[in-house]
Predict the structure of Phosphate-specific transport system accessory protein PhoU.
Amino acid sequence: MEREHFSRQFDNELNQIREKLLEMGGKVEVMIANAMKSLVERDTELAERTIAFDHEINTLEMVIDEKCLEVLARRQPAARDLRFITLALKIVTDLERIGDQCANICKRARELNQEPALKPYIDLPRMAQAASDMVKEALDAFVRGDDALAIKVCQDDQCVDELNEQIQRELLTFMMGDPKCISRAMKIIQVSKGLERIADHATNIAEMVIFMIKGKDIRHTIA
Amino acid sequence: MEREHFSRQFDNELNQIREKLLEMGGKVEVMIANAMKSLVERDTELAERTIAFDHEINTLEMVIDEKCLEVLARRQPAARDLRFITLALKIVTDLERIGDQCANICKRARELNQEPALKPYIDLPRMAQAASDMVKEALDAFVRGDDALAIKVCQDDQCVDELNEQIQRELLTFMMGDPKCISRAMKIIQVSKGLERIADHATNIAEMVIFMIKGKDIRHTIA
């Protein structure tokens, strides 16, 4: 009876970690969407608010870290639960750095919004959506223990990489054609690179999830 | 007696983790130095070897991760030791990604070495040295529990950021002056950005070390 109570409590604590991680993931998705919106709609006020919002992501990182340490210390979990908690510790770091990337994108948007638009943003929003989906799916794969979904995330990373390369090539052409474009084009390249890094973080999470599920490390074997 | 034996064994295991982390750090430092050398001395063969060497960093990441999980499962450490091990788990991820950055720099070096040099590299080697020192000091701070050293690393990050901005400004001037420079300048900017990210990883490690020592989170309060 005592044992059952203990086990129920423990499950509750694991669920709390799971829920907090999903909450953090949800907030990060909103940040990605708002960072892109602040650029596309030239909404500098939204860029400012999104930069300030990063604080909430940072706080959630600390809360989840502490919760994980507390559960490790008090419950001394083994096997699967241990892998789950240590992975949660690594995942929050990736999510926090995605928040940093969003803040960086907003800083570039703030600058770009002060100058005439170089060209309409078409590929960047697509790239942002793809990166955001990857973050969501990587976290879903984690909480559900769904390795097929995690593998899909790793594969999707290539699309984002290709979009990034295509955008960089296009902007290079702009720069070559007119030196007045260079400064703005460089900022847009930084935005594109930021989105690519967000997708990389999602891929890192997915690779770790596959490791957790399969119990062996595919991080450095998947192409 | 039995207890003492257990405790000695446990200390041994913590030392093993410590040593493996320092070994990984040492290899990462070599990678940074070689990445820079392959660029400055236009040594494409060294670039190739350094890219291939990243495999060793990846293997060490897996080895240390597994060791940490094993100690967590078998020893069920508490308090300080628990923080030490969970931090080791996070630090290997940063080290592994520094290895990735070095490989990326080598790929740019490989491309740049095929074209005439745009200009002598003066600031980049300084930046690489600063970033490499930061990695070393962050790890030293971790294994020694030296918060003063960790704080120094966080402060040094600003010098690297400033060097990066200076390099970017200078290359922007090159690009504006001659469109033929743009493609090469962009690659050098990527190298500079890669070094800045390496310094960021070192800073992340240092911030986590301060957290471990002080027991409270300064990650999001240090300017």
Notes: Residues 164 and 192 of chain B are 6 Å apart (CA to CA).
